[in-house]
Each structure stands twice: as structure tokens, then as C-alpha cells.
Amino acid sequence: MERIDLANPVFAAYAAAACLMVLKTVAMAWATVWKMMQVKGGYRAPEDARKTPLNPAPRAGQTDPDERVERFRRIHQNDLENVPFFLAAGFLYVLTDPAHWLAQTLFYGYAASRILHFWAYATAKSHDLRATFWTIGVLIIMFMAARTLAAVWGAF
């Protein structure tokens, strides 16, 4: 069986988790726009505050930072800073031919940690809780990268 093939259950688990993370990251951009439209503010560029069909009644201050919008921007930024490392480490980890149960646990554990991180951030839970979910995800990435390095070095 080829390692990079959806018939390989390890690669299939990675592909599912990777797609979830890509969709979640892209969805955060839409969530940020939705929040801007909802609060009618937090726009970034001066032209965003011009009168348009989507902004029929511009008002002063629409380009001022709005904490409700900025919170979603920070969540999106955090995804952009973390998810690519999962995509790379997870793909390389697949090449080590890990046990299916372990790979599933890592891949889906990472996805769960990012979804829980989003929930904690979006609902303004404590920093400690948010940091716990972030740390779980980072430890998973580090484990996969370390196991891949060990496999590489063991090949020589």
C-alpha cells in the first residue's frame, strides 16, 4: 500500500484532519467579516467606510478597532501561525508509517485542540484554558516532528 493514498488509513486520517483545519482557518476569515458586518465597524481600510450597498449608512469611527472584531482577527492570526506547522509535520509523520491508532489520536487530537482553542478564545474563557488547548496542539506537532526526525536519522 502506498503511504500517500487515501486507501492508507493513516493518510486518510491525516487528510481528514488537514481538511478540517484548512476549512476552519478559512472560515475564520469569513467569521471576521461576519463580525464586522454585525457590529458595523472594525473595518481596516479607509475605503471600507465608504457608502456602498453593503455599507449604506457609513458613520465616523467605522475604521476604529472594535474588540469584538479584533478577537476574531486574533483567532484567525493564531490559526495562520499554527495550522501550517500541523499540515507539514502531519504529512511528514505519515511517511514514518506510524500505527494507525496513534496517528488518528494525534491528527484528531490536534483538530480537537484547535476547535477547543477557538471556543475558548471566541467566548473569552480564561487565558489558562485557552493556553492549555494551544499547548496540546503544539505538543502534538512537536511529537510528530520529533518522531519524523528520529525516523530520518534512523534511516542512515
Features:
Four Helix Bundle (Hemerythrin (Met), subunit A), single chain, elongated, 156 residues
Structure write-up:
This protein has 156 residues and is an all-alpha fold. The chain has a single domain, classed as Four Helix Bundle (Hemerythrin (Met), subunit A). It is 71% helix and 0% strand. The longest helix is centred in the first third of the chain and has 31 residues. The protein starts with 8 loop residues before the first helix and ends with a helix. The mean pLDDT is 94.
In short:
By secondary structure, this protein is mainly alpha-helical. It has helices at residues 9-39, 67-94, 100-122, 127-154. It has a single domain (9-154), classed as Four Helix Bundle (Hemerythrin (Met), subunit A).
CATH homologous superfamily designation: Membrane associated eicosanoid/glutathione metabolism-like domain
Q: Based on the structure given, which CATH architecture is correct?
A: Up-down Bundle
Main β-sheet description: none
In total, the number of strands is 0
Please count the helical segments: 4
Distance linking N and C termini: 23 Å
Tally of separate domains = 1
Q: What is the name of the CATH topology?
A: Four Helix Bundle (Hemerythrin (Met), subunit A)
Instruction: Tell me the strand percentage band.
Output: under 5%
The SSE string, one letter per element, is HHHH
Mean pLDDT: 94
Indicate the structural class: mainly alpha
